[in-house]
């Protein structure tokens, strides 16, 4: 079965599985990811890299609950973290241009120094919930509250 026969989106190729002879899997040459399900045109439309900024609120249940901004142990509960980010969402709804300033003043991630800027990253480089949100945002779009092992985030895709 050739790629033409499968009509795969650009960057995707069909390969035969070495562990399951006779079974075909699909490999994305751009993102270096593979999967069993045939990719769709929508999959091809997703970028292979994005640039994003974020505001991270860690909480007592976060992985490594220490603020990189203050170097202090985090004492806020998950509920307090969500409430804090909801307040930030309200501020951003009024003025989205304040994202970087708020990240510098509020984020518990070391990226606070850069206004939350994480730079460019590809698939598989971030925790899955964070990655999925960042890759599905439009440029300059701001996410809702996203939960990861690191805590709760508000993400802004910048490129």
From TrEMBL:
Residues 47-159 form the PpiC domain. Signal peptide: none annotated. Keywords: Host cytoplasm, Host nucleus, Isomerase, Rotamase. Pfam families: Rotamase_3, WW. Its EC number is 5.2.1.8. GO terms for biological process: regulation of macromolecule metabolic process; regulation of primary metabolic process. One of its GO terms (cellular component) is cytosol. InterPro entries: PPIase_dom_sf, PPIase_Pin1, PPIase_PpiC, WW_dom, WW_dom_sf. Its main location: host cell. Residues 6-41 form the WW domain. It is found in: Host cytoplasm; Host nucleus. The keyword Isomerase applies. It comes from the Eukaryota. One of its GO terms (molecular function) is peptidyl-prolyl cis-trans isomerase activity. It catalyses: [protein]-peptidylproline (omega=180) = [protein]-peptidylproline (omega=0). Coiled coil: none annotated. SMART domains: WW (SM00456). PANTHER family: PEPTIDYL-PROLYL CIS-TRANS ISOMERASE, PEPTIDYL-PROLYL CIS-TRANS ISOMERASE-RELATED. Interacts with host FBXW7; leading to FBXW7 autoubiquitination and subsequent degradation. Peptidyl-prolyl cis/trans isomerase (PPIase) that acts as a key virulence factor by promoting host leukocyte transformation. Binds to and isomerizes specific phosphorylated Ser/Thr-Pro (pSer/Thr-Pro) motifs in a subset of proteins, resulting in conformational changes in the proteins. Promotes host leukocyte transformation by binding to phosphorylated host FBXW7, disrupting dimerization and promoting FBXW7 autoubiquitination and subsequent degradation. Degradation of host FBXW7, leads to stabilization of JUN, which promotes cell transformation. This is Peptidyl-prolyl cis-trans isomerase. It comes from Hondaea fermentalgiana.
């Amino acid at each position: 079965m050739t790629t033409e026969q499968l009509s795969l989106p650009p960057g995707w190729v069909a390969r035969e599985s070495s562990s399951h002879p006779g079974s075909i899997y699909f490999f994305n040459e751009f993102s270096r990811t593979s999967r069993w399900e045939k990719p769709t045109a929508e999959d091809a439309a997703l970028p292979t890299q994005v640039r994003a900024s974020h505001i991270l609120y860690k909480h007592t249940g976060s992985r490594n609950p220490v603020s990189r901004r203050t170097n202090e142990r985090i004492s806020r509960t998950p509920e307090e973290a969500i409430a804090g980010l909801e307040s930030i969402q309200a501020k951003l709804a009024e003025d989205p241009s304040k994202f970087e300033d708020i990240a510098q003043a509020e984020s518990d991630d070391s990226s606070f120094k850069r206004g939350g800027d994480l730079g460019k990253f590809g698939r598989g480089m971030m925790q899955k919930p964070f990655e999925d949100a960042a890759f599905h945002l439009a440029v300059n779009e701001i996410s809702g509250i996203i939960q990861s092992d690191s805590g709760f985030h508000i993400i802004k895709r910048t490129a």
